[in-house]
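Q:
Just now I want nothing more than another pair of eyes on a protein record. Here is the record:
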Amino acid sequence: MSRWFATILAVAVLALAGTAAKAAPLTVSQTVDIKASPAAVWKIIGNFDALAKWHPAIASSPADHGNDIGSIRTLTLKSEGNPHFTEKLTKYSAPDFTYSYDITPTQKVIPVVGYHATITVTKTDTGSTVTWNADFFAGSATNDKGAIDVITGIFRTGLDNLKTKAEKK
């Protein structure tokens, strides 16, 4: 075997080993059934800056460019010190009752990195189902289970409160 071929083979094996060693993203998906039309639910959650209106842990959620792709939403939490972080809108479709966003890479509040989430409202026979899902990696301050538990808790708290608000109307 020529030295050139051996070098190429070694580089290819190392590249494949590095790819195989990368962890798969973690995924959380939570849903809630709501006895309200998709349009009624979307009226509550459909604006990128509306999270503070339905998620009980969020004090404020202004978005610098509304529902335009690339808009940055600053979330301030209702906890000691008012921690905050930003998210970027990556997809928005009011007709489809869905939007997607990423947590910006510099945040240190939520123990995840590479976070991408989508929230969608779909029609059901009894009203609507809201699905909130995310793919992410555990940050350096936690393990996979800890990261999954945090995101699951955030989603569950928000969706349960959304159900209460939407069904009151």
